[in-house]
Amino acid sequence: MTRAKTLKVLSVASEMVPLVKTGGLADVVGALPAALAGQGVEMTTLLPGYPAVMAAIGKAKKVPGIDQVLGEPVRVLSAKWADGRKLLVLDAPGLFTREGGPYGDPNGADWHDNWRRFAVLGKAAEMLAGKFDLVHTHDWQAAMACVYLRYAGGQVPSVLTIHNMAFQGFFGGEIFGRLGLPDSAWSLDGVEFHGGVGMLKGGMACADAITTVSPTYAREIHTAKFGMGLDGVVRARSNVVHGVLNGIDRAEWNPATDRHLPATYDTKSLAKRKANKRAVEQAFELDRGDGPLFVMVSRLTWQKGVDVLLEVIDHLVGLGGRLALLGAGDVALEQELVLAAQRHPGRVGLNFGYSEPLSHLMQGGGDAILIPSRFEPCGLTQLYGLAYGCVPIVTRTGGLADTVIDANPAAMASGTATGIVLGEATYDDLSLAITRAIRLFEDRPAWSKVQRTGMRADFGWEASAAEYAALYRRLVAA
Ligand code: ADP
Ligand code: GLC
């Protein structure tokens, strides 16, 4: 057998663990290079030069020849992250050297010039693309790279991965003239969308292939319910839309080696989880006890069904459950959660903010993780839950539907059940799911069987990395 030629791929994204993260996008972008290395793909990741990124890269070489992009003074720096990941960093102080988050100011308001910040990122990717066989972009913040590549002649193929259709990068039509694109890009085949500029839409129109992060979500976005206004574009490009399930990074998420757990364990030593449960109780000021401990680790948004969770908290506590919630996001939801916790001292504990260590501890010590999302392109927390024996309770949608097997009588009998699946994010369905979980929990042998089955399921990157590599090779050969 002859070895296939190494493919050089430029991955373009606005987040990557451990440098900058607001959600699962960062985990996936961070895991892809190592996952694809095993497939003969050498991946370099282009990131914006946010302060955290600039501080982390240390010694970096300037890439010659790129001093400005769309009129913005920039430097492109080439660096290697400690574990060998190759990075290109777009140092554009006028755009990225700011206090606040990657997309907004410290008060949570979007940066007024987000269109320019990410158009410049996309254009820089196109200017760098000549050194690569293919460009792989993630979400609207990177999608403009596909547009610039197409209007530059399309020699280097591009893939756009949609991690979440709810974020589209839609801006007023007045910015079009400042994007440095030909007039022909103001069209159905380009960035124009309902009289404005749609960056995700433009990427979808121009990419050679579109992927999303689970097979079910790939089907769902063809419909008005999940397409968020872009389902027509999805249908028009249906022949290049693929669902490739995310994996998890076993180096980071493994209960047998996790440095954030007071007690590490595996399928043969589930009893050790008890020490972690005690630590969760302490961290969330919950009563000590062996009854069911539900956890939730989530952005606090409508997508994640946090409002539905609020409705069922009394039910959950009424049945003897406790809840530990770690989350950040919508302030109104936070306030309502505080009221619920005040109603149930010792039974409901909250932590607002972002904590990687706590998120690991909760998977290692919680009995079940609640993910009542209204839609979920893939979802990673249920995969972490499976790996850690923290039984996922999920809505039957997107990647949740693709990864969790409901503990119905047939699945219990055949030993394939890994969690509890509810129909829709509604009070009725979620409260029933919680009742079912508590009953199952009381049948200890059945519960530990479900935990172990989930822990043995393989959600590593192997299979999906092979799918990405095969897709890249088809496009490069075309
Ligand atoms: P999404 O990307 O839509 O937020 P995912 O389930 O794909 O959903 O990924 C969420 C990621 O962010 C997971 O790694 C999860 O552990 C992490 N996460 C979410 N909220 C928090 C938080 N408040 N603190 C720490 N980690 C969090
Ligand atoms: C998005 C989605 C989530 C997915 C993640 C990584 O943030 O909301 O479902 O797991 O991207 O692909």
Structure keywords:
478 residues, 6-stranded parallel beta sheet, Rossmann fold, 9-stranded mixed beta sheet, 19 helices
How is this structure best described in words?
- The structure is a single chain.
- With 478 residues, the protein is an alpha/beta fold.
- It folds into 2 domains: 7-247 and 461-477, Glycogen Phosphorylase B (Rossmann fold, 3-Layer(aba) Sandwich); 270-456, Glycogen Phosphorylase B (Rossmann fold, 3-Layer(aba) Sandwich), CATH 3.40.50.2000.
- The protein is built from 19 helices and 20 strands.
- The protein has helices at residues 24-37, 51-57, 93-96, 114-128, 139-151, 199-206, 215-220, 224-227, 231-236, 273-283, 306-318, 331-343, 356-365, 381-388, 398-403, 409-414, 427-442, 444-456, 462-477; strands at 7-12, 41-48, 61-62, 68-69, 72-73, 75-80, 86-91, 134-138, 158-162, 170-171, 192-193, 196-198, 209-212, 241-243, 293-300, 322-329, 348-352, 368-371, 391-395, 420-422.
- A 9-stranded mixed β-sheet has the order 3-6-7-2-1-8-9-13-14, with helices on both faces. Strands 17-16-15-18-19-20 form a 6-stranded parallel β-sheet, sandwiched between helices.
- Helix 10 packs across helix 13.
- The chain is globular, with a radius of gyration of 23 Å.
- It starts with 6 loop residues before the first strand and ends with a helix.
- The model has no long low-confidence stretch (mean pLDDT 97).
- Alpha-D-glucopyranose binds at residues 23-25, 28, 163-164, 213, 246, 376-380, 399.
- The site of alpha-D-glucopyranose has 14 residues, from helix 1.
